[in-house]
Input
Amino acid sequence: MCGIIGYLGYREAYPILLNGLKKLEYRGYDSSGIAVFRKRKYNLYKTKGKVNELEKKISFYKIKMKGNTGIGHTRWATHGIPDNINAHPHVSNSNELFLIHNGIIENYHAIKIILSKNGFIFKSKTDTEVLVNLIEFVQKKNKLSLEEAVRISLNEIVGAYSIAIVDKSNPEIIVIAKLGSPLALGINEREFFISSDPVSFVNYTKNVLYLRDGEMAILRKDKDLDLRKIRDNHKLNPIIKELQINLKEIEKGNYKYFMLKEIYEQPKSIRDTLRGRLLIPNKNIDGLICIDGIESNKDIFINAKSITIVACGTSWHASLIGEYLLEELARIPVEVEYASEFRYRKPILGKKDIVIVISQSGETADTIEALKLAKKRGAFVFGICNVVSSYIARNVDAGAYTHAGPEIGVASTKSFTAQITVLTLLSLIIGKYRSTITNNRYQYLCKELKSIPEKVSQTLKIDDTIKNISQLYCHVNNFLYLGRGINFPVALEGALKLKEISYIHAEGYPAAEMKHGPIALIDEKIPVVFLSTKTGQYKKIIGNIEEIKARKGKIIAIVNEDDIQISMLADHIIKVPKISEELNPLITVIPLQLLAYQIAFLRGENVDQPRNLAKSVTVE
Output
């Protein structure tokens, strides 16, 4: 969940590192640090807080960060509080080795005891300081090269890591390694760029190598890349790929925050996710859905005994919508599991079972472990993720990318609707294969799905209505979100968005469950958001609204444009285009995303970097 950056080449390292840290700040912003090396000299600065605090500190002291080698880090705290001492880079006891690290060393305490008995002293509370001193201990005791000391030390480590390490006596070498946590290497002639996310170096090179688990690389100035296996030192042939990222996609443009930009990108991201997969029906051509990962495994999906969807956070909410869709359209029993719980259970899985793992980054630690468990049990694993060459993309049996484009804001928005789009396509095509959906209904839903990008564009025009409502309720302490059927997971997602970025307590519930507890909270101070479009349970929703009104609750209702009844009951209405019930979440979530954004903005919060959260959860 931390961000690591490194450079070795002919340019000045500091501007590259600083620019990279700013792009990686979505991964962690408790503290940050930079070390730049020149011959045997170095400059190291670390500070608690965001990257701009580090930049101010370096500018204040008028330090000239000169050198062609450097490493930097932005931290999300796991071991030790956020402060200057626990910030990275960490330095070994001899002041020779400098290390940055993303991940968790699970056996660090046992190693720390051994090192302490051998005279090592620790200043921080981090597992990273233990690792850098272990490498030094192994190196000096056995008189080894840096790369060999790193390799031997990492074979003693239990946990997850991506690291970069420099010996100040020889700064023309950087050693990097990966297990569990993501690590990418940008390559140009005479220079290397190291990063947790290649977005940080896309403006320097499009040539990228994604390290696989158990790999390390020795980067030497003016030399070719040396890629090896950590376990046995076996030399590997690097596979260089072209980075498919547009610079405009990772810039805010005219938007104040990435989150708002990404909300407004959803018509495009949904259209991109549909492109090449949905052959648009017209008078002469029937709708046709084609997904390679399904086509090539058609029999597995036709004969599936059950489907288990495993995910975390917003992806888990998308999974709940997938459960409704797959059971309704494909008539396959579906269970949705939190990845963090699934990995510690003994799930009943076999060769006729399918496990779908969903992750925006493709690097979510708990979801990866769930994937490994599912494959071990013999299940067929299908992945849905947004990042090409991520761990999940490389290790599933089949899968589908969402094509949402880079998502920088910590609170997921466009990745959620892109995931739902893929799950809708899956449900329709599997339903067609299994003959559990009539051709007329299939064609109708294909046409409806085609219309979604335009209807999302229409929905985004309600921003002024959302702003007015937000001004009235931006200082309340509690919100309640209620929905029925397929809109219940949307209520969960709306509540999560508000919690994540505004720090207002919010809960999502099935509307019918309100009477089983949450109704005790209702008074004139609590706003209740109803997902109340004209679905099959519209009349039931009216009854739930009446119950809230009887207790003086304030009602914010998401309704269809032709709604009359609920519009007369609610204190505030937000009108959205009408769509078939199965596709409702793709429309109804939009006003909830905007509501969360506007309330957080009015409260003066940092929308893109909510406290205690990181975009990619690469540690357990």
About this structure: The mean pLDDT is 90. The two ends are 10 Å apart (CA to CA). The first strand starts at residue 3 and ends at 8. The chain has three domains: 3-245, 255-437, 460-609.
